[in-house]
Amino acid sequence: MATVKKQPLRKCTGCGEMKDKKDLIRIIRTPEDNIELDLTGRKNGRGAYLCNSKECFAKARKNKGLERSLKMAVPAEIISRIEEELE
Questions:
Q1: Which residues contact 12 (CB under 8 A, 6 or more apart)?
Q2: Mean pLDDT for the chain?
Q3: How is the beta sheet containing 46-50 ordered, strand by strand?
Q4: pLDDT tens-digit readout, 57-80
Q5: Which residues, listed in sequence order, are joined to residue 19 by a DSSP beta bridge?
Q6: Is the whole-model pTM more than 0.85?
Q7: Under 8 Å CB-to-CB from 34, ≥6 apart: which residues?
Q8: What are the beta bridge partners of residue 64?
Q9: What does the pLDDT read at residue 86?
Q10: Which entry of 4, 49, 53, 62 is 20 to 30 Å from 21 by CA?
Q11: Domains along the sequence of the chain with CATH
């Protein structure tokens, strides 16, 4: 019998829905306190997840979901890079 591999679920910081990890964008805070986009999903650091939509990103900015998840302020350059990634 073949076993079915379970997909990990993560919560979007914008809409709050649980979705497959591979369908979300990961933003990390590295141990050196830098904030980066993690497109591979494997980098070391504290992660926050966003849906691949502009609406969820707008909600996360409004309710400060990214700042809360990463436990620090997100610089403007990272915000602009996330906006570029969503387009």
A1: 19, 24, 49, 50, 51, 56, 60
A2: 92
A3: 35-38, 25-29, 46-50
A4: 999 999 999 999 999 999 899 899
A5: 10
A6: yes
A7: none
A8: none
A9: 85
A10: 62
A11: 9-86 (3.30.1230.10)
